[in-house]
Amino acid sequence: MTALCISAGVASITLYVNSFTLAWMHSVEKIRWEEQWTIHDNALHVVLASVRGSGAGMEPPLDAHFLNGAWQYTPHIPPLQTLRLAHSPFTQGYELCFGGECYALSALMSELLTLDTMVLEACER
User: Fold this and answer.
1) How many structural domains comprise the chain?
2) Sign of dihedral through CA atoms 60, 41, 7, 19?
3) CB-count burial class (<10 Å; 0-12, 13-18, 19+) for 17
4) pTM, rounded to two decimals
5) Which of 35, 21, 29, 32 is nearest to 96 (CA)?
6) Which among 5, 60, 72, 106 could bridge 123 via Cys, Cβ 3.0 to 4.6 Å?
7) Is 26 within 8 Å of 55 (Cβ atoms)?
8) Residue 99: band (very low, low, confident or very high) from pLDDT cuts 50, 70, 90
């Protein structure tokens, strides 16, 4: 079964999902950014990204289109084995959305409150 494994330090959790949305707030512009990911062939595939504005370091690419209040585009990156996320106590944390609900990653893993890196990866369980 395909799953998403999230680890921070020695702690880890497994979520049995085929897709998820990773969301965060830009640290300077305070604008929401979202990426939709799928899991298949034991890799993470980003299929769509959207940002609800532009500004410091977050200009949408030339192929983006404006739809439902956000710039949407397909990121041109290959499938990833791991996705490393930086965690800072000075910014609003990441959200992980699946099954119609969104959860703060810090709520899913309290260890994130003291660590600065978390790893997301496709895993078979």
Assistant:
1) 1
2) positive
3) middle
4) 0.87
5) 21
6) 5
7) yes
8) very high
Nearest to 72 by CA among 57, 88, 60: 60
110 conformational bin, left if phi > 0, alpha if psi -120 to 50, beta if neither: alpha
In angstroms, how far is CA 23 from the centroid of its own chain?
5
The yes-or-no verdict on residue 111 having pLDDT over 60 is no
CA-CA distances (angstroms) from residue 83 to 12, 29, 37, 53, 67? Answer: 14, 23, 11, 24, 27
Q: Per-residue pLDDT averaged across 94-106, rounded?
A: 91
* Cα–Cα distances in angstroms (integers) from residue 29 to residues 56, 57, 58, 59, 73, in the given order: 7, 9, 9, 11, 19
Q: Which residues pair with 19 in a beta bridge?
A: 38
Q: Averaging pLDDT over each range in 62-71, 103-112, 115-124, which range is the top one?
A: 62-71
Write out the residue range of the structural domain in which residue 36 sits.
2-124
